[in-house]
Amino acid sequence: MDDRTHHMLTSPAAPLLVRMATPNALAFAIQSSVSLAEVWIIGQLGTGALASIALAFPLLMLIQTMSGGAAGGAVTSAIARALGAGDRERAQQLIWHALALSALGAALFLVLFSLGGRSLIAFLGGRGEILEQAVDYCTVIFWGGLFLWLVSVVGAVFRGMGDMKLPAVLMVASAFLQVPLTAILVLGLFGAPQLGIVGAAYSAVISGFVVSVIMLVVLAREGRVIRLDRKYLSFSKALFRDIFKVALPASMSPIFTIFIILSLTAMVATFGEAALAGYGIGSRIEFLLIPLVFGIGAAMTSLVGLSIGSGNVDRAEHIGWIGSAFAAGLTGVVGLVLALFPSAWIYAFTKDQVTFEAARSYIQIVGPFFAFQGLGLSLYFASQGAGAMRWPVIAIFARVLLAVGGGWLLAFGLGLGLKGVFIGAAAAMATFGLIIAISLKLGAWRRA
Questions:
Q1: Which residues, at least 6 apart from 167, have a Cβ–Cβ distance to it below 8 Å?
Q2: Residue 118: how many other CB atoms lie within 10 Å
Q3: What percent of the chain has pLDDT over 90?
Q4: 352 near 275, Cβ under 8 Å?
Q5: CA neighbor of 50 nearest in space, from 330, 279, 369, 227
Q6: Average model confidence (pLDDT) for the chain?
Q7: Which residue has the higher pLDDT, 103 or 270?
Q8: What angle do CA 152, 117, 107 make, to 5 degrees?
Q9: Which residue from 322, 302, 247, 219 is spatially nearest to 24, judged by alpha carbons?
């Protein structure tokens, strides 16, 4: 067993988790600013552009959460468990399986969008120019999806071997590239053509290409715990099974989370363009919590996977509780601050009063429940490391029922309108976090 793996298996859990999570959390916080900056830049084009990006944003998040959360988490878990068991050869073979998974995932998403993407966006309420802009944005994103998948999955390989710093550094560098590039392409600065919101899509793909190439070059170099080596280029059902036993159930979370967002978007769209734009601002803030929590959760996936691989379930559970408490506290504070001071930030994205009121209503109802989002998401990532995905899947099903069914009942059945949609989303968020936490307390990881 190499020194790095031994250190992660024996060092005190709390300070180790903090050291590993800090670069990730900071990097993802900076990366989250890209999304905020993108909304601000697109907001300069008007309410119609904001409504278009609100329709397209869930599909971008589906790529990011599937590649980084489900597939990436499964890759991190498989490699960490292999290293925890002292099997470096297996870990190196898993790298090639992870790259194959990236290509397959990107191709599948492109085919699905080509077959039904336009109809889906129209179903969500896209009409006229708003529909065309949203479709153009998504077309670029899905055709360049391979680079977005590679950034997530190759980053997961590094995290599986315990290297949190390199992916974090490259994420920060990517943010400093993507934000100005987005402004140039969206607004037509410095003589560049003004592409509108599709410029933001080109910016994301170009940044993904640059970062993924750098990651692959570094991964192929000597001197790491494991590396990209052609002599391990072979594929086996057993190794794909090792990844997919976590990735398939884990994919239920991003799929149904996006289903929730799409369903809520469709419901909100019935209240008008301004309501849709306001919800787009508020929901994007919620989704910014996912990469922030992922910064913590990625470290949890690696450390829990190593502990489970070495047979130390007590240590794995201890890491789960420490990390989830940290994530819940962080997201809870963010939600409360945003809910208490909505005027301090919403006006940065829009001056339209109806749009402002919709965004304020969302954040003041849902924001106080962000702590449960942090709790559930962090334990979801940790459960990937443990290879125990039954209860996280049950939790996401419960969240769908409450958010979509409960939101519809409150909004249209009981006549609460837009606030009813948001109350259903808040209740669903709380249920999601509590179910996974209770399952861990009752020993779910010990029965995996």
A1: 24, 27, 155, 158, 159, 215
A2: 17
A3: 44
A4: no
A5: 279
A6: 88
A7: 103
A8: 40
A9: 302
- What stretches of 251-369 show up as alpha helix (H) in DSSP? 252-269, 273-309, 313-340, 343-346, 353-366
Asked whether the beta carbons of 282 and 358 are under 8 A apart, the reply is yes
Cα–Cα distance, 156 to 368 (Å, whole number): 31
Cβ neighbors of 389 (< 8 A, separation 6 or more) are: 246, 249, 250, 383
- pLDDT of 1 strictly over 60: no
**Does residue 68 have a pLDDT over 90?**
no
DSSP H helices in 188-272? 198-219, 237-250, 252-269
| Residue 38 clears pLDDT 70, i.e. is over it | yes
Return the ∠ at Cα 317 (arms to 314 and 323), rounded to 5°: 140
Q: What is the mean pLDDT of residues 124-136?
A: 86
pLDDT score at 26: 78
SS3 state of residue 270: coil
Angle at alpha carbon of residue 204, lines to 326 and 285, rounded to 5°: 40
Distance between CA atoms of 101 and 149, rounded to whole angstroms?
9
- Token digits of residue 296: 């913590």
Residue bearing tokens 């360049």:
144
Concatenating the DSSP letter of every residue in 105-171 gives HHHHHHHHHHHHHHHHHHHTT--HHHHHHHHHHHHHHHHTHHHHHHHHHHHHHHHHTT--HHHHHHH
Whether the pLDDT of residue 269 is over 60: the answer is yes
Phi-psi region of 311 (alpha: psi -120 to 50; beta: other; left: phi over 0): left
Task: Give yes or no for a contact between 282 and 101, defined as CB atoms under 8 angstroms apart.
Answer: no
Which residues touch 364 (CB under 8 Å, ≥6 apart)? 339, 342
Count the Cβ atoms, other than its own, within 10 Å of residue 124. 24
